[in-house]
Amino acid sequence: MFNFDLSGKNKYYNLYCAIRGEILKGRIKPGERLPSKRALAEELGVSVVTVQLAYEQLLAEGYISSRERSGYFVEDITAYSAHATQPSTFAYPTPPVESFKIDFVKGSTPASLFPFATWARLIRGVLADCGEHLLERVPCDGDFELKSAISAYLYRARGIIVDPKYVIIGAGAEHLYGVIVQLLGRENIFAVENPGYGKISSTYLLNGAKILPISVKEAGICLNEVEKSPATVVHISPSHQFPTGAVMPASARSRLISWARAGNRYVIEDDYDSEFRLVGKPLQCAFSLCPEKVIYMNTFSKSLAPSMRMGYTVLPPKLYEKYLQIFESSANIVPLFEQKALAAMLNGGYFERHLSRLKNHYRGVRGLLLEKLQNVCNVKDTGSGLHIIAEFPKAENDEEIKQKAAAEGIKLKCLSDYLIAPASGYEKCAVINYSGVTREQLLNV
Amino acid sequence: MFNFDLSGKNKYYNLYCAIRGEILKGRIKPGERLPSKRALAEELGVSVVTVQLAYEQLLAEGYISSRERSGYFVEDITAYSAHATQPSTFAYPTPPVESFKIDFVKGSTPASLFPFATWARLIRGVLADCGEHLLERVPCDGDFELKSAISAYLYRARGIIVDPKYVIIGAGAEHLYGVIVQLLGRENIFAVENPGYGKISSTYLLNGAKILPISVKEAGICLNEVEKSPATVVHISPSHQFPTGAVMPASARSRLISWARAGNRYVIEDDYDSEFRLVGKPLQCAFSLCPEKVIYMNTFSKSLAPSMRMGYTVLPPKLYEKYLQIFESSANIVPLFEQKALAAMLNGGYFERHLSRLKNHYRGVRGLLLEKLQNVCNVKDTGSGLHIIAEFPKAENDEEIKQKAAAEGIKLKCLSDYLIAPASGYEKCAVINYSGVTREQLLNV
After folding, report:
1. pLDDT band at B232 (very low <50, low <70, confident <90, very high)
2. What is the mean pLDDT of residues B144-152?
3. With contact defined as beta carbons under 8 Å apart, do A392 and A377 qualify?
4. For residue A263, what pLDDT is reported?
């Protein structure tokens, strides 16, 4: 009876649209009986649930009616159309088509590597295990089970001893930046790395805080500039700065801590990308040097999936008390369901297994990439993180680098594109973010 | 072998703690074999998943090891304890015990009325239907399917025609208040209702905006005060103001719209509680009078469950364009999973079925409550929402009302407790929020 293309996502929505279209065009007549859910599911090679959801939406909008024990029948829509016009006239937006063969800008973990079956199993497990407790209000700082799981993970992965109490669950990095502004006060001046990840400065600005761009050298954020500045908070990503790739040596971290100790100052350690140190052991974090002065944070968006906006911050005890004062009457922003599933993923060891699979994948991509770039440019690679810097000393300027790449179907940006404030010394360097790139794509360019 | 109390929530966590305790106390010896997952699940009357999750956590922390085809064995923890000390020493926090028999302050929908089985089925359905697409990045304004489902729901329930495009999905009311500040700019002065829901003003302040408390009369926010004030944005809950219960008549809504039209001004219509008009039809909303000047918003926290921090706002087209400009590069904050499940719940008609069940429940509670209060106080009840005002003209003061109630095991607040700024005319009135109260509780006081 039906012959629809349901290969895309939102299968049930597509099926619903297709059947609705047939009804509106009069190809299925009023009074006609639709195939049973099971029969249609078999015919189309989709799950019964998909058909059921589509039928339910058609039912809710009055296109079909259900008669007990007989099935689903098409309604007379000429009588109905007066009501139907509203919800039906809005079109499903079509995403723009990208013309690049390879994208070194956006980049997100390949979905194929995500242990979807495990995750789905954990979700079903959480549903069965927690039952109606999933409906309960989550304390403002997050579910204690996830807080504990993260504390245990931080001990295993980063060697940090953290009382789970001080772990705050948030909805990804941007949300946590906002929380930090609310916590420290927007009268603070936030020193940010320049060049840097644009979201950091734009989110601080959006939250009404003042920012102060500080240049990034080989040893990370320039401490001479910080010390001379009126900044009261410094936001750093010491394990692998984006986009320069700078790794902050231990001595620089101590010096920054001394700066923080000398006043009412804080260091925000954005441990971005630290999971992806592909060569050697992860570096000690600044947090362990001085937990009273360092706000540690990280997210799972890069390591799990971009749709899971989940992250956490570890607060110094004093700030934790202030957090409770401000937010005690609010529920945590991340659904309990997601928190329980992630806790099970961490506690069951699945997260670390997934990470090591991801790292293997990226080692392969990185190896091929370095090979391909060998005679083309000077590569600056610190072995950390999911991007490298490719210097093209002979290029005229950054525009030329990008245009030449685009001509070969390669999308990329240069260091200068990540400048928050004008600065020199960052020219002729492409930023090769390979987190969303596969070996196959690389072989084809 | 085991005899644990697993009646509380977090069954698997409790089981994990219990077994770990036995191991640490030496009651289960190194090398000893644990019962099979299935056997222990049967013995304790829990699901196999629960036991599996507990075993997995013990495995991850090294308390037990697994040998293929033989089962789980207790490790020698004397060798291990050096590593184990860190994550084991932190205690699970115990929630404070409430001593009141009845709570007219907090109040959240009774979990027993939530269609948990349906919701669990929809979640399993979404897992099967969407598969790995659930991992994809969600556009900044939310999943289009949920946006459409909300648009269709608003048409059915509130008679508003809304292009799904302009619906923005957010993580509950507080998150959306913050987004609105970022959208309109914190240089605005937000007029808020006084007395009012404290979270509204505190969230605006926390986001760096200025607020201006305006008194609430019988016809809602006092328009004379608004018109004389320097406010540029007015935040109202016209269907059923909290806590006064005021309902804003159509004429007042039009007058407020005229005020907004006369300048670069906006009205935020917080359609809080509009689902719970228990007598008569819901009132027309201000949004439909002037979609260019009204930011409509509502949440599902009250109607579904407090753990689901999900809400939405409908933006005027101009503000929608600005929203895209600011947030285009950000992913939506609510997990796609929850968005798909809610869309299925709305499209399948389950949400409205749940609402009508809730309303029946609340009609029963309300009836009994009005009966009980008949000879005790003057009741002001507009038939809307889940709270009523009980006036005690003979009481000495508000403190006496609360103390007398507390003596009978009743927790309540007075109108004056919800004042954001000092104001008179709100004395001797108790706020009876019955959203978390059952008939059984009422019969026992």
Report:
1. very high
2. 95
3. yes
4. 94
Sign of CA dihedral B9, B11, B13, B14: positive
Instruction: State the smallest CA–CA distance between residue B142 and chain A in angstroms.
Output: 11
pLDDT of amino acid B35: 86
Q: In this structure, are residues B345 and B122 in contact, taking their beta carbons and an 8 Å threshold?
A: yes
Written as one string, the DSSP assignment of B219-267 is TEE-HHHHHHS--SEEEE-TTS-TTT-----HHHHHHHHHHHHTTT-EE
- The whole-angstrom separation of Cα B248 and Cα B251 is 8
Q: Is-cis flag, bond preceding A30, omega within 30?
A: no
Q: A138 vs B307: CB contact, 8 Å cut-off? A: yes
- pLDDT value, residue A58: 79
| CB pair distance less than 8 Å for B87 and A13 | no
Token pair of A230, please?
């009126």
ipTM of model over 0.85: no
B6-15, B192-201, B406-415: range with lowest mean pLDDT:
B6-15
Q: Which residues of A touch B87 (CB under 8 A)?
A: 148, 151-152, 155
Q: How far is B105 from chain A (nearest CA, A)?
A: 12
> How many contacts, defined by CB atoms under 8 Å, are there between A and B?
216
What is the pLDDT, as a whole number, of residue A97? Answer: 66
- Is A81 in contact with B100 (CB distance < 8 Å)? no
pTM equals 0.81
Residue B253 tokens, joined: 């809504």
Distance from CA of A126 to the nearest CA of B (A): 8
How large is the average pLDDT for residues B384-405? 92
- Identity of the residue in A114, A128, A349 whose CB atom sits nearest the CB atom of B47: A128
The answer to whether the Cβ–Cβ distance between A90 and B148 falls below 8 Å is yes
CA-to-CA distance for A252 and B131, rounded, in angstroms? 46
Asked whether the beta carbons of residue A116 and residue B132 sit closer than 8 angstroms, the reply is yes
CA distance linking residue B17 with residue B58, whole number of Å: 9
Instruction: Look at residue A81 in the predicted model and tell me its pLDDT.
Output: 42
| Residue count of chain B | 445
- φ/ψ of B338, rounded to 5, equals -65, -35
Average pLDDT of chain B?
Answer: 87
Residues in chain A predicted with pLDDT less than 70, given as ranges, are: 1-9, 60-61, 77-98, 279-283
List CB contacts (< 8 A) between B92 and chain A. Answer: 144, 148
The answer to whether the beta carbons of residues A266 and A256 sit under 8 Å apart is no
Contact of B257 with B295, CB cutoff 8 Å: no
